[in-house]
Amino acid sequence: MKRFHTQTRFVPLKLDRNNVMHIMQKDGKVKDFKTRGAVEKYCKENHCIYCEEKYIFHK
Q1: Which own/partner contact pairs does 41-46 have at CB distance under 8 Å and 24+ positions apart?
Q2: Please, what is the average pLDDT of the chain?
Q3: If pLDDT is split at 50, 70 and 90, which confidence band does 34 have?
Q4: DSSP 3-31
């Protein structure tokens, strides 16, 4: 039996001159993707970067 559960999110980020901001959805939540391929495609189309957030939950 596993003793932990992992979750990975890929979050696109918009760069300004001195700021790094999250890209928001229309409902006000932070836009995130479950796969690296989807976020890379989105960032290539919208000229942004992304970061990978990995969470580990212990049972």
Answers
A1: 42/12, 43/12, 46/12
A2: 90
A3: very high
A4: SEEEEEEEEEEEE-SS-EEEPB-TTSSBP
